[in-house]
Design goal:
This protein has about 375 residues and is of the alpha+beta class. It folds into three domains: about 110 residues, Calycin beta-barrel core domain (Lipocalin, Beta Barrel); about 90 residues, no CATH class; about 130 residues, no CATH class. It contains eight helices and 23 strands. The strands form five sheets. The chain has a six-stranded antiparallel sheet with strand order 4-3-2-1-11-8, with no helix packed on it. A five-stranded antiparallel sheet has the order 5-6-7-9-10. The longest helix is centred in the middle third of the chain and has 15 residues. The chain starts with a helix and ends in a 7-residue tail after the last strand. The relative contact order is 0.13. The N terminus is likely disordered.
């Protein structure tokens, strides 16, 4: 009898987090109010939370009104009643507080800009929203294609727009909030410091581009660069010549220890992926089936204040992730305001420390010969 009473007493004083952790698994749903091109819109969000084999939480998100393709969160944690979900693929985080009855989670969703309310309710068999089947994967453009835009619309972006980059909308290619400097550096694998000359609005004026390729299929990253080169020449009248100059730069070299990452097992002919995402307390650089030259391009194009040159001599394609703490200048270049807060005592290192500790590579500031684009002519975009 005494043992039974002790067991009941022990159960009664378990912290709320332990009980909530048992009940948090399930399907949650709520509407996110966001600003669209035609005003405010509501996007229905479904979050499915389950337990991994090691009993940690995992989450999958569906934006069923925009794109029902499931998006896996890279972290899902519950401390007390505080739930935090980080989705690096979207550069997004969700933070909420689980109610005492375990049936609702008032919270906020942020994607680099101001946090937006997103209140989730536990779904039942009767109330659960139907999740449409995801669209089939896009057909890829033939690898030997030399594509161009058959038509392209270029418009100034909103002054309060957050973030920047490119994407796909059906058959069309889109960019959002991108300067002409961004287009040039992306197309020609340059850092902004590798451009000389050009008008003052090169960096300051930003555009949204919507264009349709003249070749069926979704272009690869390299084919997209070809398309932007042609767009810059035709619509912005870009003319230039290239020179070699010694400039302040960052170099990537291998430490005396062996590299701490592996050659990718993916099909060498499949697409590569290099992108930055948010993580609790910092950011993560995700690399999939990509050479280190592409990593250098991503660092110089999105994060660092100087050109980045790969001096490792490694020529393979690799898979790895690097977690680091960005400084304010990194966030500004990525068009972000902040990173998700964390209660962890050990913050990740800087990008320089992360390369050394997590990859066995040295990322250091130096001077070296690099390619420089000398701009001879550049005009504002011609009429659509």
């Amino acid at each position: 009898m005494q043992r039974l009473l002790l067991s009941i007493f022990a159960l009664s004083i378990l912290p709320g987090s332990a009980l909530l952790a048992q009940n948090i698994a399930g399907t949650w749903q709520g509407a996110l109010k966001a600003n669209g091109p035609n005003g405010s819109v509501e996007l229905r969000i479904v979050v499915k939370i389950s337990r991994a084999d090691d009993q940690s939480l995992k989450a999958t998100l569906y934006s069923i009104d925009k794109n029902p393709t499931p998006i896996n969160a890279n972290s899902c944690t519950l401390k007390g009643s505080s739930l935090k979900i980080s989705i690096s693929q979207l550069n997004a985080t969700y933070e909420g507080t689980v109610s005492s009855d375990g049936n609702s989670i008032p919270g906020t969703f942020s994607q680099g800009g101001p946090a937006l309310p997103l209140n989730l309710a536990r779904a039942t068999a009767e109330t659960a929203w139907a999740i449409p089947a995801p669209p089939p994967p896009p057909k890829q453009m033939p690898t030997n294609a030399d594509p161009a835009f058959v038509v392209a619309t270029i418009k100034p972006s909103d002054l309060d727009a957050q973030g920047q980059g490119y994407g796909f909308r059906g058959e069309d290619v889109t960019t959002s909030n991108t300067s002409v400097s961004w287009l040039i550096t992306f197309a020609y694998n340059l850092h902004a410091n590798q451009m000389i000359g050009g008008p003052k609005w090169l960096e300051s004026e930003k555009y949204n581009v919507l264009g349709r390729p003249d070749t069926p299929g979704q272009p690869s990253r390299e084919q997209l660069k070809i398309m932007f080169k042609k767009l810059l020449a035709e619509r912005f009248q870009l003319k230039f010549h290239m020179e070699k100059r010694e400039l302040p730069a960052y170099t990537i070299t291998v430490l005396k220890t062996e590299p701490k990452f592996s050659v990718s097992t993916a099909d060498p002919n499949s697409g590569l992926g290099v992108g930055f995402g948010l993580a609790p307390g910092g950011m993560v650089l995700n690399v999939r089936n990509a050479p280190l030259d592409s990593v250098a391009n991503a660092l110089q194009g999105n994060l660092l204040d100087k050109p980045v040159v790969n001096r490792t001599g490694l020529t393979g394609k690799y898979d790895f992730s690097v977690k680091f703490t960005p400084d304010p200048s990194h966030l500004a270049r990525l068009g972000l305001v902040s990173v998700p807060a964390t209660t962890d005592l050990d913050a990740p290192p800087t990008i320089f420390g992360a390369f050394q500790e997590q990859l066995g590579l040295k990322l250091e500031s130096t001077k070296t010969l690099v390619d420089v684009m000398v701009i001879e002519k550049l005009e504002k975009p011609s009429d659509n």
